[in-house]
Amino acid sequence: MSVAVFLAEGFEEAEALCPVDVMRRAGIDAVLVGVGGKIIRSSHGIAITADIEIDVLSPDASFEAVFCPGGMPGSVNLSQSWRVNELIVKTAQTGIVAAICAAPAVVLAPLGLLKGHDATCYPGCENYAPDTHFSDSGVVVDGNIITAKSAGWAFDLGLEIIRKLKGDDAAEKARASIYYRF
């Protein structure tokens, strides 16, 4: 079971790494995919080494889920990657698509993936997708689309990805392992 976690220059590190941490605790192969290089610098200047660069992924690579962290300009950089968009749309057909903060509005909405779905995003980012309705909820799960508002909801997002991929028991075990309360 694998999840592609797309990292582009300017990503929000807590939004990326908190979900990766809990997914890996649950035995999910959360693969850090570098967009634009192997070493990606976060919005706060932290350099993270990706597991693989997007340009070396096999053309027929597939994942059970894909995840776009937010942050600026990270979300914009993800939205401008043809390969990222291709993998998101491909995964949406049979798997889970998750995004947090600015990424639901900046990455998913332009691809048409939020049409007819409930979603949330960072306050003010709704302006990037004026035709999309966003709720004020912290995390929204609607079918195969999972969105979260901000870094404060990163663990909850990770737990919802686990819940969708491995069930309630696996999510509860991961939650308990970090002594996290909802």
Mean pLDDT: 97
State the CATH topology.
Answer: Rossmann fold
Count of helical segments? Answer: 6
What are the low-pLDDT stretches, counting only 5+ consecutive residues below 50? none
Please state the second-level CATH architecture. Answer: 3-Layer(aba) Sandwich
The span between the termini is 25 Å
Please estimate the helix content: 25-40%
Q: Characterize the largest beta sheet: strand count, sense, and whether it forms a barrel.
A: 7 strands, mixed
The percent range for strand residues is 15-25%
Give me the count of strands: 11
CATH level 4 superfamily: Class I glutamine amidotransferase (GATase) domain
Please tell me how large the radius of gyration is.
Answer: 15 Å
Strand-pairing-aware structural class: alpha/beta
Number of domains: 1
- The CATH class assignment is Alpha Beta
Strand order of the largest sheet: 5-2-1-6-7-11-10
Inertia-based shape: globular
Topology pattern, helix = H, strand = E: EHEEEEEHHEHEEEEHH
Mind explaining what this structure looks like?
This protein is α/β, with parallel strands linked by helices and 182 residues long. Helices cover 32% and strands 24% of the residues. The protein has a single domain (2-177), classed as 3-Layer(aba) Sandwich (Rossmann fold). It has helices spanning 13-25, 74-79, 82-92, 103-108, 154-166, 168-177; strands spanning 2-8, 29-35, 39-41, 47-49, 52-53, 65-68, 96-100, 119-120, 134-135, 139-142, 145-148. The strands form three sheets. It has a seven-stranded mixed β-sheet with strand order 5-2-1-6-7-11-10, with helices on both faces. Strands 3-4 form a two-stranded antiparallel ribbon. A hairpin with a 5-residue loop joins strand 3 and strand 4 (47-49). The protein is globular, with a radius of gyration of 15 Å. The mean pLDDT is 97.
